[in-house]
Design brief:
mainly alpha, Transferase(Phosphotransferase), domain 1, two-stranded antiparallel ribbon, 5 helices, 4 strands, 6% strand
Length: 160
């Protein structure tokens, strides 16, 4: 993979003073399609992070994202127990239940794109798991309301 990973793409954009906020939706969609394919094949990646989201080629204007490093991947059928993945990308339910589920791949991908868009980690803490457990909302209803009032820019997603 000649284009490096998404972190390299972000750095190149920053170095050239290119605003990437709108462009990232295209890369996010490609990552989601990769995870969708894995999950359709009943596989979980378990370690989605920037270094595992590579660019197929060095075409800065039309990047093609590929998920790599399936060393921790497991099938849905396997009883994946224990903490697997990279701290900071592991979903809270995995820390609490000591078990990975397919939705964890989506959580990890969310962390990747939060970091690329915000240029910071989502919930910093004193250790690997601490930040994940910080409570940001008082209730589930508050989270739901935030979701309704802060919609992603869906118009930037390409249509099929």
């Amino acid at each position: 993979y000649f284009g490096g990973d998404l972190t390299k793409l972000a750095k190149r954009a920053y170095d050239k003073s290119i605003e990437m906020r709108e462009s990232w939706w295209r890369e996010l969609l490609q990552c989601l399609q990769g995870v969708e394919y894995l999950h359709r094949e009943a596989q979980m990646h378990l370690d989605i992070k920037e270094p595992n989201t590579m660019l197929r080629h060095d075409d800065f204007k039309n990047p093609e994202v590929v998920l790599v490093d399936f060393g921790r991947a497991q099938s849905f059928c396997s009883k994946v127990t224990g903490i697997s993945g990279t701290p900071g990308y592991i979903p809270p339910e995995t820390w609490k239940r000591y078990r990975w589920q397919p939705q964890g791949d989506i959580f990890s991908l969310g962390v990747v794109f939060f970091q690329l868009l915000a240029a910071r980690v989502p919930l910093p803490g004193p250790d690997a798991a601490a930040g994940i457990f910080q409570v940001q909302a008082k209730s589930v209803q508050e989270v739901g309301q935030q979701t309704i009032t802060n919609q992603p820019p869906w118009q930037l997603f390409p249509t099929r």
